[in-house]
Recover the amino acids of this structure.
């Protein structure tokens, strides 16, 4: 029972103006719980309520200290951002990368309250990496005064395809050491909280519609270009998992029939021409010394011709692959993430050329292409959003049954 119900035990009659207002208030609260901070204009678009109704509801909720309003910039204009005020519960997000682990804490108002990252050795063992993440989570809870055992849960991002029937990483992952291991059980034991495991690209996509610039976007493709290449799909406002949960493996779509052999066993996959691993390998071979991703970014921004040529070839190939996705699902937006994000238009321009060359003209013209503004934090932010969104759904559907 809410405080409002206790103060006024007489429930409004169904269909009355008071009942309608309560329903609209709950719709606004639920929307903020699912999306995080939104402007009043965005709230109106998502809920379907008029801007005047939204304005009145926000004023009422702010007076009750259920939401907080702040001045923000939206599409270049000043606007009023609305956020839930609910700091009692906390969720964690943990992103395991090929060479790092990142831990974040956030509350149901989608407020980030702690963030940390540590390097991991290439080819890290599951047990060692989980132990590091567990220590980082304990330290984050200590810094924020959070009772770790009362966390809502921990979302976990792993760079590889995950069979959702078993929650195990399958062959073809960037972290082959993690294949076939019951990661869920090990994480639950080490962290002491419920865990939800997902592919890192799926979480990158979820982050875009939760924390990024596309919070009102209902159909979106997120593409992460790193040591491997993966994508996450948002269809009709929700992550798309397909039959087994193994979706978005665009890095293993064939671009050149006679290309290099890929780690998946096929030939000429997108990863063999556009991943950061192949870019650094080609430049290292050409120069006779190791070249890092950071070197690629620095040289490209300085106008190095060899580096720009490799980026151009990779971008066109990525655009070609994205065109096939765009022709199939016709998304509103495609967002590029990963360590090459600082390149901005240097990478986006060839991707756009490849997309427009191979997509149906109307689809290519109607699909906006963006670089993610969340950088290397996207996957961890998506991981914590996975927990918060699930918790919000459970609160809104109290009769839903779950199996053990």
């Amino acid at each position: 029972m809410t405080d409002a119900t206790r103060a006024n035990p007489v429930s409004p009659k169904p269909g009355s103006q008071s009942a309608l207002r309560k329903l609209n208030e709950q719709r606004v609260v639920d929307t903020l719980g699912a999306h995080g901070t939104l402007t009043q204009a965005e709230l109106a678009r998502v809920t379907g309520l008029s801007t005047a109704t939204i304005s009145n509801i926000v004023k009422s909720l702010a007076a009750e200290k259920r939401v907080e309003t702040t001045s923000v910039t939206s599409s270049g204009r000043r606007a009023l951002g609305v956020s839930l005020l609910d700091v009692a519960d906390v969720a964690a997000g943990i992103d395991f990368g090929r060479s790092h682990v990142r831990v974040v804490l956030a509350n149901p108002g989608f407020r980030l309250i702690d963030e940390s990252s540590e390097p991991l050795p290439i080819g890290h063992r599951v047990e060692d990496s989980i132990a590091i993440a567990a220590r980082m989570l304990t330290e984050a809870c200590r810094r924020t005064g959070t009772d770790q055992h009362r966390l809502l849960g921990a979302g976990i991002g792993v760079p590889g395809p995950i069979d959702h029937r078993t929650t195990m990483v399958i062959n073809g992952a960037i972290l082959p050491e993690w294949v076939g291991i019951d990661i869920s059980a090990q994480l639950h034991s080490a962290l002491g909280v419920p865990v939800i495991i997902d592919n890192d690209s799926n979480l990158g996509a979820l982050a875009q519609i939760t924390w990024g610039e596309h919070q009102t976007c209902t159909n979106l493709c997120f593409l992460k270009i790193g040591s491997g290449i993966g994508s996450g799909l948002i269809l009709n406002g929700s992550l798309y998992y397909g039959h087994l949960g193994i979706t978005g493996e665009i890095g293993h779509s064939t671009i050149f029939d006679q290309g290099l052999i890929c780690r998946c066993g096929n030939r000429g996959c997108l990863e063999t021409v556009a991943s950061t691993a192949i870019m650094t390998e080609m430049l290292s071979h050409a120069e006779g010394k190791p070249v890092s991703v950071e070197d690629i970014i620095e040289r490209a921004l300085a106008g190095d011709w060899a580096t720009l040529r490799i980026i151009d070839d990779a971008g066109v190939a990525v655009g070609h692959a994205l065109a096939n996705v765009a022709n199939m699902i016709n998304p509103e937006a495609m967002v590029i993430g990963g360590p090459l994000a600082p390149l901005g238009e240097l990478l986006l321009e060839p991707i756009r050329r490849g997309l427009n060359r191979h997509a149906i003209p109307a689809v290519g013209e109607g699909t906006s292409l963006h670089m993610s503004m969340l950088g290397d934090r996207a996957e961890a932010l998506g991981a914590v959003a996975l927990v918060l969104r699930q918790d919000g759904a459970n609160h809104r559907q109290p009769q839903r049954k779950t199996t053990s």
